[in-house]
UniProtKB/TrEMBL annotation:
This is Tat pathway signal protein. Coiled coil: none annotated. Pfam families: DUF1501. InterPro entries: DUF1501, TAT_signal.
Amino acid sequence: MSSELSRREFLKRASALSMTGIAAPFALNLAAIGEAAAATATDYKAMVCVFLYGGNDYANTLVPYDTASYNLYSGLRPAIATARDSLTATVLNPALSLANSRQYALAPELKDLVPIFNAGQMGVLLNVGTLIQPTTKTEYNAKSVPLPPKLFSHNDQQSVWQSSSPEGSTKGWGGRMGDLFAASNGNATFTCVSAAGNAVYLAGNTAIPYQVSTSGSIAINGIKSTLFGSTACANALRASITANSNHIYEAELATITKRSIDADVQLKAALASVSEFTTVYPSGNSLASQLKMVAKMIAGRNALSAKRQVFFVSLGGFDTHDNILTDHPVLMTKVGTALNAFHSTMVELGISDKVTAFTASDFGRTLTTDGDGSDHGWGSMHFVLGGAVNGKNYYGTPPAIANNGPDDVGQGRLLPGISVDQLGATLATWFGVSNSELTTVLPNISNYSLKNLGFMM
């Protein structure tokens, strides 16, 4: 890239940063200068991370179905195995059959995802997890290679999944992608958006996560209507909290507050312009409600002047140490119906090829039982959905179904065959991140010769 083009891109970057409310000297920092050659976008694309908090049980989500595999699976978890005759409607028939006649079926409650898979718009990722570099079981046992910090810890593995670092990390790979594309958006505020509260996944060097509720923007109390019944009081409060100041921190707070107020106005107007969807979202499903708000923001993308957006939604309750046969099917129903409704909405809007959703979780769980549940694990099975997905296929190698077998480190805790960095790099490449910028987004990807898994067109 020429120095003049880099200079122009940097000026666009600085302008976008000022719109997000990050005032000098914070905006013109080394991180921003390092991103002077930020990516640009003329079309629209969105990525949606669906995080399942607690560590989803992989074996009852994607269930071994061929007779030999099912017998191994049910033998290792006799008290919590899904009945084989309940899986008939959710058996997956990929375009390319797995070796050794291996077959899988989705949990019965994920039946709404089967048509998406059959239509070639959903792929299944086998044995994904946090890694620093490709790791064999021999290397793991010998501790001869670096391993992710604090394995099997909820908070830390949630953070490592989202940011490549343990709890306390301040930057995630979704946010680092936002750093590269914020300058392409008319308002950088709407680059990284969470409908599920705070998430390190969306935080970048300069990208700031914007939080929304399932009803829309979160207005500042006291100025969203009258204050003590008085419009004058509300206006006075507004003037006070957005007033200029010579104190650096007061000035920064005022700038951020004004950004929030302006974003609230713009988002309300954008959402008001969106027609009601014909797709019906399930009630009593918090994940579905979050995804519906994401869908509305995507539908209002032109009013928000957005070209690239990274979204985060979540569902909790996956720490199934007990009652797995009662609790996990309820969770699977919420996931299946929510993802189906969201995908149907993207089809309805005619932009399913512009929006990709993927699941993530702290870790998988043990294949062996923990009473009537399972314990903390490592690798897991995940899904990626969208019109740009090379679907109706598996990606990765089916792990051996065993306790302390060749693909697990004990109790059926899978040693990941696919790293989060490879998953992220494949999505980032589709999103428009250049090969030279991949290590900026995913710092461990340089340790892998295979950076693109091929599940995106």
